[in-house]
UniProtKB/TrEMBL annotation, chains A, B:
<dbReference type="InterPro" id="IPR023772">
    <property type="entry name" value="DNA-bd_HTH_TetR-type_CS"/>
</dbReference>
<feature type="DNA-binding region" description="H-T-H motif">
    <location>
        <begin position="35"/>
        <end position="54"/>
    </location>
</feature>
<dbReference type="GO" id="GO:0003700">
    <property type="term" value="F:DNA-binding transcription factor activity"/>
</dbReference>
<keyword id="KW-0804">Transcription</keyword>
<keyword id="KW-0805">Transcription regulation</keyword>
<dbReference type="InterPro" id="IPR001647">
    <property type="entry name" value="HTH_TetR"/>
</dbReference>
<keyword id="KW-0678">Repressor</keyword>
<keyword id="KW-0238">DNA-binding</keyword>
<dbReference type="InterPro" id="IPR009057">
    <property type="entry name" value="Homeodomain-like_sf"/>
</dbReference>
<dbReference type="InterPro" id="IPR050109">
    <property type="entry name" value="HTH-type_TetR-like_transc_reg"/>
</dbReference>
<protein>
    <recommendedName>
        <fullName>HTH tetR-type domain-containing protein</fullName>
    </recommendedName>
</protein>
<dbReference type="GO" id="GO:0000976">
    <property type="term" value="F:transcription cis-regulatory region binding"/>
</dbReference>
<feature type="domain" description="HTH tetR-type">
    <location>
        <begin position="12"/>
        <end position="72"/>
    </location>
</feature>
<dbReference type="Pfam" id="PF00440">
    <property type="entry name" value="TetR_N"/>
</dbReference>
Length: 206, 206
DNA sequence: GTCTATATTAAGATAGAC
DNA sequence: GTCTATCTTAATATAGAC
């Protein structure tokens, strides 16, 4: 770890505050509807100052996505650290964390379409590295769970991976929450159930 | 049915062409990234002419969404017309149609966030009526399927309904298609499997 | 690095002739 | 109803003083 000057620490702390705000706004409104003016206002600095830290709106969003990816990788470590956890337990653990995070309004979701953000992210080494590592880690769990017979062997591992990734932007959570008559924990339980056991709902192998 | 003059027929035909183009562009890029200039160019008329037919971009998109809703209701009738079909068969039928339509790039998907389109749609009687009717029809099938034991009784019917609706914008289809190594039919089968039987994958009650 | 003020551009919408 | 030309606004980005 490199020793940092006080000035550098302040600089990083400010950038962290910026990225935190961006992450929240991205989760709330998405990339296209989030404006740089808004970010600057919420952070409490001038827009021009923002552009001294990040060269573009895409870079701003990319920084937030990288931080999100790092959080996800941290969660992977948390799952890995559970002593008796099987592969399916870990998959369920990371999926539950994803749902909880989204429901809490803290999951910045990439626009599914061909937005300018998509290209920026594909060109962003930090983001792509994180994505690869996350895919590898989950991929290993998936293969193991299929060997255990706890994940359907008829599905290609990539389909399982994408299905779990997609929980980060599952609109069902928001729909159920909008109803207003269920607790967050209850909503997460239901979506976990549909995800792993399906609508037809036979109990899973354990 | 009211008798229409030739002029009126031409008018309606043109509006149909416009709505068709909008539907495709909405499916491709979403509401925010679709521009009115683009719509006009693809239809082959001037932008100002477009605004003689529809008063705003939101109205344009709403017309496309209403047409989509009508197509869905038609599909409901098709399912209802199957002689031996049980409730779960019908639910699977409409879900499969939804997946196929999205995969074919013909499913305009509403932006999940608080876009201007959302408010326009909520204020749009034709759209909301269609949505209510669709919800009622699927709701009846869901309740019946739960009574039959073919849909998990632990799930509230609204959760099942939202889960089926959400297939219209499931990103897993696009992810798998981007890989390029699977047929559309194969992709649809896998997503159907995860939707109804879950990742854990026990065969459903039939 | 922070600010105020401004440039630039893209896109929704309209004016007015035919 | 169709067109060309124009208006208006909002949002990304930058200039330049301190």
């Amino acid at each position: 770890m490199t020793r940092l000057s006080f000035r550098q620490k302040v600089h990083l702390a400010r950038e962290d505050a910026i990225v935190g705000t961006v992450k929240r706004l991205l989760a709330e409104k998405g990339f296209d509807l989030m404006t740089v003016d808004e970010v600057a206002a919420e952070v409490g600095i001038a827009k021009a100052s923002l552009y001294k830290h990040f060269p573009s709106k895409e870079a701003l969003a990319a920084a937030a996505m990288v931080q999100m990816m790092d959080q996800a990788l941290e969660q992977v470590q948390t799952q890995e650290a559970q002593p008796g956890a099987t592969a399916i337990d870990k998959l369920k653990g990371i999926t539950r964390w994803t749902l909880q995070t989204q429901l809490a309004g803290a999951m910045p979701t990439l626009p599914a379409e061909n937005s300018s953000l998509r290209n920026a992210l594909i060109a962003h080494k930090g983001y792509m590295d994180g994505l690869m590592e996350l895919s590898d880690q989950l991929g290993a769990w998936i293969v193991q769970a299929q060997a255990d017979g706890t994940v359907n062997r008829a599905l290609p591992p990539e389909a399982v991976l994408y299905t779990i990734f997609a929980r980060a932007c599952d609109p069902v959570l928001g729909f159920l929450k909008a109803g207003g008559s269920h607790s967050d924990a209850q909503i997460v339980d239901w979506v976990m159930l549909t995800c792993f056991d399906g609508l037809a709902g036979r109990p899973a192998v354990t």
